[in-house]
Design goal:
5-stranded parallel β-sheet, elongated
Amino acid sequence: MSMAEPHIFLSYSRTNLEAAVALRTELEKAGFTVFRDEDSIRAGDSWMERLQTALQGCSAFVLLYGREGVRRWVGAEVQYALSRNLSPHDDALRLPIFPILLPEGDLTKLPPFLSLFQIQRWQTGEALPATLIDAIQRKSELLDDSNTFDGCPFLGLSAFQPEHANLFFGRRGETLDALKLLGTLRDDVRPDHIRVDKQYCRWLQIEGNSGSGKSSLVNAGMLPLIQQGILWARTGYEHWHILKPMMPGEKPLQQLAEVLEHSLLAEQHQRDIGKRYQSLLADDKALALRLRDFKQDGKAFLLVVDQFEELFTFSDPTEKLAFDRQLYTALQDKDCPLFVVSTVRIDFLEHFEQLPCLKELYRQRLCERYLLPTVTQRGLQEAIEQPARLAGLDVSAVTTVMLNDAKGEPGALPLVENALRVLWEQREGNRLSGELYLSKGGIAGLLEEQADALLALLDRDLPKGKADALELLLSLTRINDEGRHTRRRLPLGEARLAAGGRKADPVRGQKIIDYLSGRLEPDGSNRKANGSLRLLTVVGEERNPSPTDSVLSVDLIHETLIRAKGKDEASGKLVGYWKTLYDYIDKNRERGFYRDQLARQAKEWQGKSAWGRWFSLAGWGELRAYRKLRPERGSVDERFLRRSRRMAWVQGGALALLLGFVGESYLWTLNHGFPPGYMLEQQKFRLMNWGLLAEPLPEMVDIPFTTDAFQVGDSDADWADAIVKAGIKESNNIGFPATQGTLQEPFALGKYEITYLQYDYYVWSQQGAEKSPEYPGNAPNENGRGQRAVVNVSWNDAQGYLQWLSTKTGDVYRLPTEVEWEYAARGGTTTDYWWGDEVGQNNANCLDCGSQWDNKFVAPVGSFKPNPFGLYDTAGNVWEWTCSEWKTDFDGSEGECAKPDAASNRRVSRGGSWNGHTVFSRPSARSRYITDDRYSTVGLRVLRASRTP
């Protein structure tokens, strides 16, 4: 074999040159050709390119490990060797690695990725072990078969941390791929000649699906190798000060202040988190300047921001923007050697537009992005077998079946880790039982059984503990309408209240948190026989030896607990990995809506003047909806709720004094089938009638006027034919073929559909009048009224309301014509729906619109985005009466109101409804109804004629 095609690559430190020469001699005696970089790579060469070329031509990599360990040049060589060892799918192409330990070498400093291989002890003057020579000849690496790990080598649902690096298998190739993206992206420069330019990366983002193992990759894969200097060849830095990993949380700037103080200052008395926080608030350069204070030659700082998506889902808006500016400024400062590694769920990438500074680094390609793929079958097999080998476990009975169960599952690793941990706890000697695994229902069944058993034990040890635990877990879930729920961290104080039962007892809440997070009570009573599963983690304890409640928060241990594993074939409904919790979330999904609504109301309330706050408190109906919410004491949400409840008590007391009013109100609700909370609405009606409260009159939007003609109806013939063939058309005309329409005069249209509150007030104010109107029936499927769009109002009923409204305001109100309605509903767009050509998800309330009200309820007005003209709910929710007489085809009357003596008693309605097909939510869709009839799907929106003479 010629020198141009070396067989063995010999890697060594210059301090071990004498031993390297002796080792080379021994290898050559055994018949091998040896490549040494100092013989073959000359000064001025493109060192990294030459190194990769040399390694490509080798069939074995021998590492001489001495006193200096794996540093600088040796570290770079090891990194390339590991890449060749891990990346090929064909074992014949893998580069076997053989570490040789000199007497002065320290095994405790061996990079974790090398601990897989059997270490060969050798010293100068000795012959090489025959097993080593034989393995090199066969190109077969020697694995360490000695039992080197005591206890369980599987972590369950917990994320890997740096201390678990020796157990981190299955993602080693991905780890090395990600590390290559930090520092210079060029291979034609020597490590000691690196320059910071546009091909030099200081921010690496790890992106992936929920459960893909992003945090573990960074913590157990990347950080230990970075700490050992593996990035020197690409960054020019051998020594690294790794700042403690952080999650943004609600206060990302405060979290950053804590990380800086705890990471940079060893002594507790030196730290001043409050002062550091104020400096970060006051000066966008504060992070860069602080790191400069601790700058040392040859040393860089690394900040890990885990769960970066919390900036978009959880963080205070002001702190989010300040955090954005701090990172951007520090990463742009060439005198501040800061590197950042962030992890983010792939479905939150579009939210980076919320970060005006960091998004510029995206656009300038100064942030490298690594998409973490789903773990391969080979990687998953390694994650099962290699930790087992270290602990002397036999997993042969479960490996194949686990791999089959996990195939195609993006979050396979945590499920497999959890299943292995359970099987380890119930092992038979050193064997994990395949029979037990199958009997428990595989990786998903084991998780479900564990979690259910834990809640059952909690219920046994603490009466009604299961119910309170589910409430806590629900509070820790950010509910998604499509079932893709995410974690929602809570401050410890709020979590205690959420788990504290009906009385929101924080002591009881803490007991449940301790139970679910695995924290032992002094007598161990909360952990008897309930296994190793933890459902929660208390964030912040690891950074603070004696943490205060204010810096602690509670989080789900893993999103697998709230994720769907697929759809049930029979029902088509999503099924969770843990059905108990997933179904509980589904049954209480409105809780997320009310939680967000409370936050919005509280924020608006806080921004009002002292007097204005009295009129911005929550009403009785809202308080009922908020009754199970447990905001943290002292928070804006909690103060808003407390004062709203006080006001409710005051109102209740006043009503009690007016017993006659109360009695009459109660009879009023009974007679009309109203919910009990409507007794308060009647009292509000009285106050409105006396001028003490604002009357609930429609809010109007001026519609942009044009003299140009525009399309009315639909021009898509193929679509129209498809609708007819599908049998959807029936008695409805979808507005085809289209026609041209024009506006006759400017007008304003109701911002929202008329609500029950507005219409009920009209009916109430007309009681006793001749031919007084009737209260409309409740919305279908529930007795909610209030801000829901009113239905069960006939066209003739609407005329009465419009006449009353015109008299009260002095303006002229009527129903819009078909032309006016469609022009306003389109909002200046020409697409099938005003938001695009597809119905999408959660844009409207209809049969298949993807909202929580679909085919069930009339939604409260304003529940969806407004169209470009600022009108809400023009698609779906309820059909809206127009003043136009029904004609099967457009004939010009669509731009006019029906004459009083119109021959037909049929009128056009527009907009679709809560139980209507998606096609009827298009602005071109039409329907016809009888003027005297009332329908559970039909309401109205009012038009105000131009005030200009």
